[in-house]
Structure to design on (165 residues):
């Protein structure tokens, strides 16, 4: 029964989020969550209200995720002084794999661990990586499924627009 409820909520959230991205007049509140970071501290999304936040759902086994990580780190460092944050949400079932990857590809933005996939279910993640851009009011404004070289140009345009709002 619990799995049915979770699946139903996921489908509904995916539909609602999908509709919101196609209809620019609508906004959907980003589901709040608290996850452990790699330094062992809890990070709560709602604590970042007032900033533009890029949530990136990734896994160590995902090639496009690996390609995108240094780019996200550059974005984080370039725009953080303007009220922008990147949160990497790792979905590996065993965080040790992510920790190993991050030794070879260090990033400065917070990396959070979601080994049970609860947060990814809240966001209806269906592709790896998935990137969600949230405005200063805590509303989901953009969703990107997957990654190909050049997507970062869209990210930059969207981030700049939200920073100006």
């Amino acid at each position: 029964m619990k799995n049915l409820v979770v699946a139903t909520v996921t489908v509904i959230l995916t539909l609602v989020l999908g509709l919101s991205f196609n209809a620019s007049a609508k906004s959907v509140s980003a589901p709040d969550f608290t996850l452990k970071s790699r330094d062992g501290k809890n990070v709560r999304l709602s604590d970042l209200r007032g900033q533009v936040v890029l949530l990136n759902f990734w896994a160590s086994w995902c090639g496009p995720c690996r390609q995108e990580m240094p780019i996200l780190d550059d974005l984080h460092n370039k725009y953080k002084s303007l009220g922008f944050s990147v949160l990497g949400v790792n979905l590996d079932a065993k965080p040790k794999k992510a920790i190993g990857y991050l030794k070879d590809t260090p990033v400065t933005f917070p990396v959070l661990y979601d080994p049970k996939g609860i947060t990814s279910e809240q966001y209806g993640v269906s592709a790896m990586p998935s990137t969600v851009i949230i405005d200063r009011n805590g509303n989901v404004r953009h969703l990107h499924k997957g990654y190909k070289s050049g997507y970062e140009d869209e990210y930059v345009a969207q981030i700049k627009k939200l920073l100006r709002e």
